[in-house]
Specification:
Chain A is of the alpha+beta class and about 220 residues long. Helix content of chain A is about 30%, strand content about 30%. In chain B, helix 4 runs antiparallel to helix 5. Chain B is extended, with a radius of gyration of 26 Å. The chains are: A alpha+beta (about 220), B alpha+beta (about 280).
Chain lengths: ~220, ~280
C-alpha cells in the first residue's frame, strides 16, 4: 500500500503549526493556545479554537493536522462519554489521556497529531498529560506543544514555579504564548485561555492588540 | 507498517506529482497515443457570509478543464436541504457527488426523524466521510444554512477539517475575495448589504483569478425560505452566438453530380401479419 501513499496531513488543508500550553495548579489547570490555522503560507483560519472539550472538566489542546486532531478528539470524546455513562461517574483525566495515547500510538504512521490533555477530576485534582506525535504519554506539571513551543522552553524553565495561583498561571500562559507567537511565523492571531476547576470552566480571549508586549529588537 | 518517514516541509503552490505519473503513463502507452484524461476542476471563487437573519452564499460560474472553459454557466451552489445549501470548490465531480450523497442522506434522516436537518449535522457527516478518504476526494466546501439554532457557515476541507467562522472564501480566487470580506465584513449586516458584499467578493475573485469568471450566483437563506438568484449578475463580456446553423439550399454551389446505381438482388422475403383488430 506504499506506492500511492501520500504523506499524511503535512500537505493537507488545515495543517496547523501552533503553540499550545497547559499548566497545573492546586485546584485545576490552565490551558492556552494561539488561533492560527495555515494551509502552506495562507492563513486559512485566524480565529481557530484549538481548545476542545472532551468532557465537562476535561479539555484537549490540538496541534498538528487539523483534520486528524478533530477526528481523534471526536472519537475520544465519544468513547469517554460512553465510559462515563457506564461508570455513572465523571471520568478521570488519566483515562482521557490514555484513550488519546492508544489512538495516537496505534495509528502513528497515518496521523499527525500532538495533543495536550488537561482537566480536573476528584481523585487527583488538576492534571496535565502530554501525548506528542508518535503516541507517548507522560504527565507534566507544565507542558507546551506545537511549532512555537521551541521558542519558549527557556522561558518556561526559568519562569515556572510550583504553587502558583490560578491568576498567576493565566498570566504565565498568556506571556508564554505571546512570546511564542511573536517569534513563530506559524502561530498568531488571538490567545485563547481556559481555566478548569472543580466548580467549572472559565474561557477567555486576549485579542491581538491586548497581548502582553516584550522587548522587540 | 514501519515506514521511515522523513517529513518534508509543506511546499506552497501547486503539486505536480500527478504530472510525473502521467508522463510515465504516456511513455508506457507509446508515441502519439497520449490521451491523459483531464479532470474537470472548477477553479473557483466561492464565498459565504452570515448576516442578520440568515446566510448569503455566492459563487462564480466558470468550470475549467485545463485552460479551456468547459462550462460557462456551471452551478456551484448545491442543494443539500430546504434550509441548507453548499458551495463547492475543487474537483467538479467530487463536489457534485459528495453534495448529492449528503443531500440524499439528510432527506432520509428528515423522513425518519421528522426533523429538519441542522447545518452542524451536515458538516459533521461531510467531515466524517472526507476524513475516511484521506483527501482523495478533492472537495472544498462552504456549507451554509439556517436552522432552529440560528444561521451558520462551516468550511469543510478535503482532508476532513472543519472550521466555523462568520465569513469565508474558498477556491482559487479566495485570496482576492478574502481581501474584500476582511475589509467590509461587519457582524449582523442587513441582507442587502451582505448580498452586495458577497457579490463584490466574488467579483474580486473573477477579476484577479484566471480560473474564475463569467456570472455570479447568489443564494440567500433565511428562516422564511431560500432565494436562489442565478445569475445575480451577468458578466459584461458576452459573445454573440447565432445558435441557429441552418443554411438556405443553394448556399453551397454544386460543382458536379454523379449517380451510381446499386445492384441489389432479392434474396429472401418474409411477410408477417400484424394484429390490427
Amino acid at each position: 500500500s506504499c506506492d500511492f501513499y501520500v504523506s499524511p496531513a503535512r500537505r493537507s488543508s488545515g495543517f496547523r503549526a501552533t503553540t499550545i500550553m497547559a499548566v497545573e495548579f492546586d485546584g485545576g489547570v490552565v490551558i492556552g493556545a494561539d488561533s492560527r490555522t495555515t494551509t502552506g503560507a495562507y492563513i486559512a483560519n485566524r480565529v481557530t479554537d484549538k481548545l476542545t472539550p472532551i468532557h465537562d472538566r476535561i479539555f484537549c489542546c490540538r496541534s498538528g493536522s487539523a483534520a486528524d486532531t478533530q477526528a481523534i478528539a471526536d472519537a475520544v470524546s465519544y468513547q469517554l462519554g460512553f465510559h462515563s455513562i457506564e461508570l455513572d461517574e465523571p471520568p478521570l483525566v488519566q483515562t482521557a489521556a490514555n484513550l488519546f495515547k492508544q489512538m495516537c500510538y496505534r495509528y502513528r504512521e497515518e496521523l499527525m497529531a500532538g495533543i495536550i490533555v488537561a482537566g480536573w477530576d476528584k481523585r487527583r485534582g488538576g492534571q496535565v498529560y502530554t501525548v506528542p506525535m508518535g503516541g507517548m504519554l507522560v504527565r507534566q506539571p507544565v507542558s507546551v506543544g506545537g511549532s512555537g513551543s521551541s521558542y519558549i522552553y527557556g522561558f518556561i524553565d526559568s519562569k515556572y514555579k510550583s504553587g502558583m495561583t490560578k491568576e498567576e498561571c493565566l498570566r504565565f500562559t498568556a506571556d508564554a504564548l505571546a512570546l511564542a507567537m511573536e517569534r513563530d511565523g506559524s502561530s498568531g492571531g488571538v490567545v485563547r485561555l481556559a481555566a478548569i476547576t472543580e466548580s467549572g470552566l472559565e474561557r477567555s480571549v486576549i485579542l491581538g492588540n491586548q497581548l502582553p508586549t516584550f522587548f522587540s529588537a | 507498517m514501519a515506514l521511515s518517514h522523513v517529513f518534508e516541509s509543506p511546499v506552497p503552490g501547486f503539486n505536480f506529482e500527478n504530472s510525473t505519473r502521467n508522463l510515465l503513463l504516456e511513455d508506457a502507452l507509446g508515441e502519439g497515443k497520449s490521451n491523459a484524461p483531464k479532470p474537470l476542476k472548477t477553479g473557483t471563487t466561492i464565498a459565504g457570509v452570515v448576516c442578520k437573519d440568515g446566510v448569503v452564499l455566492g459563487a462564480d460560474t466558470r468550470a475549467t478543464s485545463s485552460e479551456v472553459v468547459a462550462d460557462k454557466m456551471c452551478a456551484k451552489i448545491h442543494y443539500i436541504a430546504p434550509n441548507i445549501y453548499c458551495c463547492g470548490a475543487g474537483t467538479a465531480a467530487d463536489t457534485e457527488k459528495t453534495t448529492e450523497l449528503l443531500s440524499s442522506n439528510l432527506t432520509i434522516f428528515s423522513m425518519n426523524s421528522g426533523r429538519n436537518p441542522r447545518v452542524v449535522m451536515a458538516a459533521n457527516i461531510l467531515q466524517n466521510m472526507l476524513f475516511r478518504y484521506h483527501g482523495a476526494i478533492g472537495a472544498n466546501l462552504i456549507l451554509g444554512g439556517v436552522d432552529c439554532t440560528g444561521s451558520h457557515i462551516y468550511r469543510v476541507g478535503p482532508y476532513g477539517s472543519m472550521d466555523k467562522v462568520p465569513y469565508l472564501a474558498m477556491g482559487s480566487g479566495d485570496l482576492a475575495a478574502m481581501g474584500v470580506l476582511e475589509d467590509r465584513f461587519k457582524p449582523r449586516m442587513e441582507q442587502e448589504e451582505a448580498k452586495t458584499l458577497v457579490r463584490d467578493a466574488i467579483r474580486a475573485g473573477i477579476m484577479s483569478d484566471l480560473g474564475s469568471g463569467n456570472n455570479i450566483d447568489i443564494c440567500v437563506i433565511t428562516s422564511k425560505g431560500v432565494d436562489y438568484i442565478r445569475p445575480y449578475q451577468e458578466s459584461e463580456y458576452k459573445d454573440n452566438r447565432q445558435k441557429k446553423y441552418k443554411y438556405k439550399p443553394g448556399t453551397t454551389p454544386v460543382l458536379c453530380e454523379k449517380v451510381v446505381r446499386l445492384e441489389l438482388e432479392l434474396v429472401h422475403e418474409t411477410v408477417q401479419k400484424m394484429e390490427t383488430s
